[in-house]
Every structure is written in structure tokens, then in C-alpha cells.
Amino acid sequence: MKHKVIGKVVSGNSKVATNVTVFGEKNEEEKIENVNELFRIIKSGDGKIAEIIKKVPKNWIESRDEGGHTLTHWLAKRGDVHLLELVIDHGAPIDEASSDDVGMHPLHWACTEGRLGCARLLAKRGADLDARDLQGCTPLIIASQWGQADMVAFLIKMGATAQILDKNKDSALHWASYKGNLEIVGLLHHLGLPLDEPDAYGQTPLHLAALCGNLNVCEYLLLDLRFPVPLEPLDKNKKSPKDLALEKGHKKLAYFLDAQRPLCQQSLWTFIKHRLTFKACIYWLLGESNPDGMRWPLLIMIFNKLLAHFFYFFYFLPFFYETPLLPINTEQNLNISVNESQKRRLVPAILHAMNFLTQSLAWICFICAWQLDPGTLDKNSVHGALRRAYDKYFDRLVTGEMPPNKKVNAPPPVKNIVLCHSCHIQRPLRAKHCRVRRKCVMAFDHYCPYVGNAVGLYNYRFFYGYCLFFTLSALQWQYVATIYLYYHGTDYSLLSAMGWVALFILFGLAMVIYHTQLVYNNLTTNEHLNVHRYDYLHDPNNPLKFFNPYDKGFCSNLIDRFFPPALEQHPLIHQISAYIDDTPDPSFLLASAPSSSNYLNKKKEDDDPSSLPLLP
Question: Into which family does the record put it (predicted)?
Fold first, then answer.
């Protein structure tokens, strides 16, 4: 019988190799001749690993590779729960540190990759949740370093000590701040860790975030909390977070920290520097610490409307209704006057009335889109149901409970539930965390700097109305301005204004056409631009094919976008509320949003924040 020999390496001092023969699918033999081959197969995933493990000698299961790692280490890193359980049942060590210069335990390795199933098995079999490596790092600290939010929550719920410090007296929260893992910082804060605890160098999480230029973490610590952390704590070298930021060249972050001082603590020069100088004004127009919140587009839109009103009331109306109209460059008509009825027919009164109406509607829609709540979600939304769902998720991490994916009456089931660690809620489908408003917004479309607000569930209709009526009023204004120039002659100030307004007419037409298509298909801008991120927008039977579960025909789509229900009655939120309060079939929980830690990594690339993976 032909057989395949995979190497022949003699382990230890023995000169005789031990052969383990495993038959493949085609009756082909695989000979594993020593423990090094076993480790190679485990690492690469080649061969029938389960059959190999059942046949190898026990001393191989208990052995280590050349780096001092056990089979348990490698299987915990791979995330294969069944094989990990198999080698443990065959005598593999559960909680032995590696013999290299790091000294990590298998649970540490599981934490680096976010292998929740393996971590749950190791904890069940008696692994020490507070085991330390040679640097004094516990699995909780390792999970924080690697940005594994689910693992952090799991370890704390399982009883890991969150206050343990490494050799430098840094906790998991210090490491999360240092690494810029905003979701970990928010989660640890929610789970009760103090945000102003100093490490061995007297540095708080704010120090470490400023040291590494992690503006998002600094904003969370100073802007998002009900009780912000102290702004200027001093470390053992008598340095504040601002001092560390300046030392590392993070001038933007240092400016942000300096601007957070209360007015009563600012000197006159500091107040002038941050409020009244030309540089401060430019910085304010550009959105200060968040470029997405730039304010100059909003001021430009207000200027456009005021400019149009100025020409209309001080140029057009007096000219058409107070002076005779004579065609220019027509000598034979120099002595011919045009009576009042002729003037009115040139620009009918109905056109003036329509312009007044469209301008008024544009102002109303603009103010509503600017000032109305777009549909923000927080811990108190829907009587606290979203916060209770957030907490319930962590309880399920311990047991590994996973809702069934059958009997789904909601949109097609997807893989993950999405949590927001800044708002500490379970985020419904179609919602997204707005980085400018610093809140989650239901049916988030986009943040529009031209109206100075996020566009979401409640103000989308006013945003669309503003785009429509602004464009119509601008077109009417251009028509009246053209007639004015024909009879009045060249006016360079008016020509300049017409060219300026024409640019915004083109922009407005593009916006109206684009958003009409979105309304027709019941999509948001966020979904349209980021369709690859959201599993619910893909056909369950063909993940590469686009599928929109919310497209119910034009009339239904129009009602859904322009006449939305209250948050408590919104189907996507009501499902979460009903599950938490009445505990029905939890299958709808699968109809949540895209990926978890993978989703977070994508979000980091696009600078968007904070979600969790579902159970492995």
C-alpha cells in the first residue's frame, strides 16, 4: 500500500522515531513521526487533526514546541474549540505558561485573537482568569491591548479582577487609553473602572491618551461623560496631559485640552487666544477638533439666502414696480415708456409670490433640519430598553447563549449585534454613531455641515425639503435676475452673484436627484455609500448580491422616510424593547448590524467608532 511520509525528525535524544499512521480519505496513509510534525500540522491546519490527536502518544500531547508553547496555546490562538477540548481531554496542560521570554498562558493567546469560545472553555476547565505573564499582564490587560471588547466584557463578567496592574502599574483602562481603543475605554468605564486612577508614573488615562495623540479618547473623557475627568492632573514629573501632548508634537490635541478649561479658570490672554484671534476663528470655522463638524458651510448657506433676499428687495422689486422698463441698446425705444401693466407682465406677480413662498419654505425646512432632533438614541431611549439590551448582551457572553436564526419576522438575519460603547446601548439596525453630535442617530443618513446637524429619522424630510425649495427658489431668482439685466444693463455685482448662486443651483439639483433616488429605494446615504459593511443589505443566499429588505414600493418608501413613527413604535427598536421586556423568541436579535471586531477594524480605517462582535 502506498503511503505518504511527512518528514522524519527525531525528537529529544532518542535515535528511534515513533510513527503514527493516519488513513486519509483515499486510504492514503499519513505518518507523523515526531512531535515537531504534530505542532506543524496544528499550526497549519493540514491533515485530519482530530484523528491524529487521538492516535498520538500522551507525552506528545503534553510536550512543547521549540518556542516553549503547548498545543493548548496554538489551538487557543486558532480558535478551534472542538480540537482544544479534545487535546485537553487527552491530557494537554490547561494553564501552563510558555517557556519563552514572554511567559503567556493559553488564555492570554486566546485573548489576543478574541477567541471567546476557547476562552470560555479554558475558564470552564479551571484556567486562572488573573494569570500573569512575565510582564505582569493578565488576560484582561492583553485583551485591552489588542482591542478585543467582547473578551474584556467576558473576563470581567466571569470574575477577572479589573484592578490588577502590570509591572508598570498600568491597568486595562490605562492600556486602552494608550492604544486609543475608544470602545474598550467606554466599556471599562461602563463596567465600573475609575477613569482618573494614576499608574506607577502618576499618569492617568488622560495622560496616556494625550501622550499618544488619541484625540477620540480625550474627547470621550472630557466631553461625553456626565462627570468629566480632571483636566490637568500632574504626573510624578509635574506634567499635565497638555504638556505631554506638546512634547510629542500633538499641537491640535494640546489646543483642544487648553480650550476645555472653564472660562473662570482662563486668563484674559487665553480667552482671547481661543475665542477672538484670527487663528481661533479659522479653527472654529473648520470644526475645531472634529473636521466633520466644520461650520463654514452652514454660514455660507445663510449668506446665500441673505444675498438673494438683498438683491430681490433692493434691486428687483423697486426696478420692476417703480421705474419704466426700456429694452437696452434700442435707440428707437428711448422715448417709449412702458406702463405699469406691461411691467407686471414681464415678471408676473404670481412669480414673485412663488419666489416668496419657496424662499419661506426653504427657510422653514432649513431651520427645522438645523434645530430639530434627528432621532438620537441614548440610555434613556425607549424607557431604557436599549441600555438593558446592552447589559443583557454581556450576560449572554458568559453562557455562550446564541439566539436561533429561524422564525425571523424582521429583515433577513445577519451575523452580529452591534453595540455602541460610547452611548452604552444596543444599536438598532440602520442607526449609527454620529461623531459630531457624539450620539447614536436612528436611520442615520449623514452629517450635513450645510445645515449644521446630523440628518436622521426625524429631520430627513426637512433636509430633503430644504434641498428642493432652495433649488427652486434659486432657479426663480436667476430668472428674475436675467430679466433685470436685460432691461437694466450690465451690473457686475449682480453678475457675480448670479455666478455664485449658479454653483449652488448645480449642487442643489445634484442633491435633489440623488436623494430622490434614495427615497425611491428606501436607502440612507450611509447605507448606499457603505453597503459592503452591512450584512442586511446582502442576499442571504448570495452574499455578493445586493438586497434591500426595506424597499416596499415607492409609496411605502415615501411614508417610511417622510412620515416616520415615534421611536417607541419604530419596528426595529420595538423588537429590541419587546425582547428585553417580554422575552419572546429572540431570533430577531440576529437582525442587527454588521460585523463586530472586524467591523470595528473597518470603522477605524474610516474613523468611525465602536461595535462589538457577536458570540463565536
Answer: Belongs to the DHHC palmitoyltransferase family.
DSSP 152-215: HHHHHHTT--TT---TT---HHHHHHHHT-HHHHHHHHHTT--SS---TTS--HHHHHHHTT-H
Per-residue cell: 175: 492600556
* Number of C-beta neighbours around residue 334 at 10 A: 8
* Domains of the chain, each with CATH number or no CATH: 168-289 (1.25.40.20), 296-373+463-510 (no CATH)
What lies within 8 Å, CB to CB, of 22 at 6+ separation is 29, 30, 32, 47, 48, 51, 52, 55
Question: What's the whole-model pTM score?
Answer: 0.78
Kindly tell me the number of DSSP H helices and DSSP E strands found in the chain: 28, 12
Burial readout 243-282 (b: 16 or more C-beta within 10 A, e: otherwise): bbbbeeebeebbbbbbbbbeeeebeeeeeebbeeeeebee
Rounded to whole angstroms, the Cα distance separating 502 from 513 reads 17
**E strands in 246-393:** 376-377
Please say whether the dihedral angle defined by the alpha carbons of residues 321, 322, 327 and 333, taken in this order, is positive or negative: positive
Rounded mean pLDDT for each run of 10 residues along the chain, 616 residues in total: 32 38 42 66 67 70 84 89 88 89 94 93 93 94 93 93 88 94 93 88 94 94 88 92 94 88 75 79 83 89 92 83 51 47 62 90 96 93 89 85 44 60 92 93 95 95 96 93 84 91 94 96 94 87 87 93 90 80 44 34 38 34
